[in-house]
Amino acid sequence: MPLLIGSTTFACTLLSMALGQIAVGMEAMGVMLASLVLMSLQRE
Question: pTM here?
């Protein structure tokens, strides 16, 4: 039984870490897109 609880906690931790990485990646993509739009607007 303790093994099951430990593995569940580990899986949840990995999942939250993966979701956090995805959120950070999406945020970085949004920042890059915004900067690209600003650069293209400044060129005109």
Answer: 0.53
